[in-house]
Amino acid sequence: MADSMQETFLNDLAKSQAPVFCFLVNGIKLEGFIIAYDQFSVMLASNRDAASSQLIMKSAISTIVPKGAGPVAPKTH
Questions:
Q1: Which residues, at least 6 apart from 12, have a Cβ–Cβ distance to it below 8 Å?
Q2: pLDDT tens by residue, 15-67
Q3: Among 9, 37, 39, 76, which is most exposed with the fewest C-beta within 10 angstroms?
Q4: Domains in the chain: how many in total?
Q5: Interstrand relation of 61-66 and 53-57 (parallel, antiparallel or unpaired)
Q6: What is the edge-to-edge ordering of all strands in the sheet holding 41-45?
Q7: For residue 6, what are the contacts with CB-CB under 8 A and spacing of at least 6?
Q8: 53-72 pLDDT, tens per residue?
Q9: Which pTM value belongs to this model?
Q10: What's 35's domain CATH number?
């Protein structure tokens, strides 16, 4: 079975340890590194180790954006 878009996106961010902004549905913006994830949650750390990690339920997440990523223009066909 092929990986979902979500699986691919989160896996790439976790492997690269790229810093991200994680926006929650209540408007709070978190910043850190995705160190793990599963079907229902994402583990976000403020630095590259698990000592400062937060477990965030995916249902509470609105958007995850790689830090430094500019606006994405829609593809035109």
A1: 18
A2: 999 999 999 999 999 999 999 999 999 999 998 666 789 999 999 999 999 99
A3: 76
A4: 1
A5: unpaired
A6: 53-57, 41-45, 29-37, 19-24, 61-66
A7: none
A8: 999 999 999 999 999 876 55
A9: 0.78
A10: 2.30.30.100
Q: Which domain holds residue 13?
A: 5-66
User: Is residue 35 a part of any domain in this protein?
Assistant: yes
Looking at the domain assignment, is residue 73 inside a domain?
no
Residue 74 lies in a domain: no
Q: Is residue 52 situated within a structural domain?
A: yes
> DSSP assignment of 7-73, as one string?
HHHHHHHHHHT-EEEEEETTS-EEEEEEEEE-SSEEEEESSSSGGGEEEEEGGGEEEEEETT--PPP
